[in-house]
């Protein structure tokens, strides 16, 4: 059981545990139409729901259910997005990745930078063999991000919880082979 999430850094970003002080930003990310265009989840409506979500996330971190980072610029501690590894397989060799980003920061390479850092953490530190990503079939930005990072579309795989999602996978062996 871990009490606090390991902070991850990149050239421009800090990935850190979310806190109650991030409530307004989490509410925005979980209710904004643009952010949630392709996401099949109930929208967060109130600060009370946001606090409950933050509690759920941080309790899940403590229970080793998932790892969930808030994304900030090093130059500004205000939360601009989130990225997580969750839905771990029983033997902790496969995990799913998820992410969202404030629309003001789209197209700046921020999510690519955060994704690369979390992929490296997942494969090197957590010793995962595979990371999966479920994304909406029409979400061109997410599909492009995944393909850019060597994820491969599993054409015959379906998301039983959302028929509009397609499934991409990245195996550690593919990552190593593609970086050689």
Can you give a write-up of this model?
- This protein has helices at residues 23-29, 47-62, 110-125, 140-148, 172-179; strands at 8-9, 13-17, 67-73, 76-86, 94-101, 130-136, 152-153, 165-171.
- The protein is of the alpha+beta class.
- An 8-stranded mixed sheet has the order 1-2-3-4-5-6-8-7, with helices on both faces.
- It is globular, with a radius of gyration of 16 Å.
- The mean pLDDT is 93.
- Residues 13-173 form the N-acetyltransferase domain.
- This is GNAT family N-acetyltransferase.
- InterPro entries: Acyl_CoA_acyltransferase, GNAT_dom, N-acetyltransferase.
Record the SSE blueprint:
Elements: E1 8-9, E2 13-17, H1 23-29, H2 47-62, E3 67-73, E4 76-86, E5 94-101, H3 110-125, E6 130-136, H4 140-148, E7 152-153, E8 165-171, H5 172-179
Parallel strand pairs: 5-6
Antiparallel strand pairs: 1-2, 2-3, 3-4, 4-5, 6-8, 7-8
Helix pairs in contact: 1-2
Key descriptive features of the protein:
Aminopeptidase; alpha+beta; eight-stranded mixed sheet; 180 residues; single chain; 5 helices
Rg estimate, integer Å: 16 Å
Q: Tell me, what's the shape?
A: globular
Number of strands: 8
Please give the count of helices. Answer: 5
User: Beta-strand percentage?
Assistant: 25-35%
Helix content: 25-40%
Poorly predicted regions: none
The CA-CA distance between the termini, in Å, is 35 Å
- Strands of the largest sheet, in order across it? 1-2-3-4-5-6-8-7
Give the averaged pLDDT, no decimals: 93
* Structural class category: alpha+beta
At the fold tier of CATH, the topology name is: Aminopeptidase
CATH superfamily: Gcn5-related N-acetyltransferase (GNAT)
Protein name: GNAT family N-acetyltransferase
Organism: Aquimarina gracilis
InterPro entries: Acyl_CoA_acyltransferase (IPR016181), GNAT_dom (IPR000182), N-acetyltransferase (IPR051531)
Domain N-acetyltransferase: 13-173
């Amino acid at each position: 059981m871990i009490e606090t999430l390991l902070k991850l850094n990149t050239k421009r970003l800090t990935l850190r545990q979310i806190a109650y002080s991030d409530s307004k930003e989490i509410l925005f990310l979980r209710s904004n139409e643009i952010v949630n265009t392709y996401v099949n989840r109930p929208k967060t409506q109130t600060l009370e729901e946001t606090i409950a979500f933050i509690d759920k996330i941080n309790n899940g971190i403590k229970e080793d259910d998932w790892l969930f980072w808030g994304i900030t610029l090093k130059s500004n501690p205000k939360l601009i997005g989130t990225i997580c590894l969750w839905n771990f397989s029983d033997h902790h060799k496969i995990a799913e990745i998820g992410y969202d980003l404030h629309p003001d920061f789209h197209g700046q390479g921020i999510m690519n930078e955060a994704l690369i850092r979390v992929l490296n953490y997942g494969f090197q530190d957590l010793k995962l063999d595979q990371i999966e990503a479920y994304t909406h079939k029409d979400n061109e930005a997410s599909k492009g991000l995944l393909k850019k990072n060597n994820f491969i579309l599993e054409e015959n795989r379906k998301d039983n919880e959302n028929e509009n999602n397609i499934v991409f996978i990245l195996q550690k062996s593919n990552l190593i082979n593609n970086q050689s």
